[in-house]
Structures are given as C-alpha cells and as structure tokens.
Amino acid sequence: METRTLGTQGLEVSALGLGCMGMSEFYGPADEVEAIATIRRALELGVTLLDTADVYGNGANERLVGEAIGGRRDEVQVATKFGSERKPDGSWVGINGRPEYVLAACEASLQRLGVDVIDVYYQHRVDSTVPIEETVGAMASLVQAGKVRFLGLSEAGPETIRRAHAVHPISALQTEYSLWSRDAEVEALPTVRELGIGFVAYSPLGRGFLTGSYRSAEDFDEGDRRTVMPRFREENLERNVALADAVRTLAEQKGVTAAQLALAWVHSRGDDVVPIPGTKRRSYLEENVGALELELTNDELRQLDEAFPAGIAAGDRYPDMSSVNR
After folding, report:
1. What pTM did the predictor assign?
2. Of 120, 123, 87, 178, nearest to 326 (Cα)?
3. Cα 268 vs. chain centroid, distance in angstroms?
4. What sections of 45-126 are H helices per DSSP?
5. Whole-angstrom Cα distance, residue 175 to residue 183?
6. Each residue of 41-58: pLDDT tens digit?
7. Would residue 202 show up in a list of annotated catalytic residues for this protein?
8. CA distance 165 to 159
C-alpha cells in the first residue's frame, strides 16, 4: 500500500483511508459483525487510516473501531473528531468548541476507543461562538499531554485555518471532495497547500451516489440520512443521476467500476490528498482499494473535468450549509 504524508509534522498514512461512520448510523441498518470484519480486512489490505467521530452512533462507532483494532493498535492511525455535541439519548445539542468541552470530549473518546493516544484529533465543525484560538489552544494542550499526536480541522474556511495553524501546526483538513463536490478547489486546497497542511477527502464517492447504485428515493433504506439531503431530493435527483451515468459510462470504457474511477480521480488530485471512502462491507472495501491501481490518462482526466465542472451537482451538500466552510 502506497503511503502519503499529511502536513509537515510527520503524519504518514495509507494513500486510502476508511470512513467508518456508516457502520453505526446514518446510512441504513448496522451490522456490527460485518463492520468489524471490514475494518480488519482493511488492515490486511494495508489501509492504516481509520476515520471515526464521537458523534457517529453517539459513541458507538468509536467503541466499534476500538474493538476492531484490539491487539493491532500499532498498525493503524486512528482519527476521531469532537465538536458536534449530542445528549445521551442521541438528541442534538449543537456545535461546541469550548476548551473545557474539548478536554472532556477527548477523554471520553480515548476511553471508548480503548487507546492511550489519538493519532489525529479533528474539530468536527467550527464553533462560531468560540474563537478558534481558544479551541485549538485546548487541542494543543492535548498534544503536550501526550493524548493526541496530530491536530486537524473539518470543513473550516481559509481564515479559520490560518488562525488555527498560527496557534499550533494543523496536519490535516478534512472536507468533502469528489467529482460532484469540488468547492474545496476554490479556497480550501490552495490554503492548505500554502501552509503545508494535508487534505483528507471525505465522501469521495458522493455519499455512494457516484457508484450508480442510487437512482430514486426507493433505493434508500428507511432512516437513511441521504433522503433529507438536497442532492438526493426528488427535484435534484434526476439531474444528478445523469452525472452518475457519466461516471459509469467512462468507467465501462476503461473496464473498471464507477466507484474505482471516481476514487482514482480524487487520488490523482495530489500526493497531499487522501480519500477516505466509507463502507460497511468487505466487498466494497476491496473494490475501493482496487482504485489505487488505476492510472488515469490526461485524456481521461480531461473527460472527467468536462463532465464534472465545479458546481455541476444540483442541490447543496447539506440541508443547512451554515456550519461548513467557516
């Protein structure tokens, strides 16, 4: 497995990570046995970067990841996040970046994961009510205490990234990035490259849409979070299905799957970009890892750029975009 370096502080990870969110919540029924088997299969294939968050399953996802890596801690870089606060019953509280909350959230994540140190600790969303200097200052104290190795931000805007990086080096920015979500190319990617920060691309398959598996509202399980997202709503779905079809057509011409082509495109964006496709099944994991073997020609990259110019997708990424790119 190829490795890539994120940031300038020494964080080295596999060129493809594994997003674990859907194993516990948001994307239909959970199957813990298969999820754990998927994580362990990822390790066998050389995937070392596992991505979770305290909010996924309200702590359940961190516990699942911790169980899956039991006895194999030295083989992985565990990334988790804080900042999207929920009550014990699962109801939402809001975004929290207060220093005292950062410290408490880290202790709780360490316990659930069953580890002594978190490799990458992200602020999940920027809290507009707390100066970023205060939040990152608390995160930096966790590094000094040996509880966290590297710091990250998620969905932060350029000014926030600069201010945070001035307090303590940020190793990675995690932001949605795929053929149908190219907003990061405008400001986020140029900013992190200027500062020497790595880029972790979540939802590189467009929340599974670019695989071609979803063509109508009936294709989603009951309770699937995507059904309330603008791009998956009826008024936008038909236009976006045409985009997925374009990926499938180009993939067929190359003799690969749509998922592999879409992932190969993200992977080609630079040596500082690491996609973390999420899956809860071993078969899809193996398909995704196969994308690393693909090399796209200049002509293929041109075709994809023409088919997917920035802003082509119909609908916003989230029902409420107010908490992203701050």
Report:
1. 0.94
2. 123
3. 17
4. 60-68, 99-113
5. 9
6. 999 999 999 999 999 999
7. no
8. 10
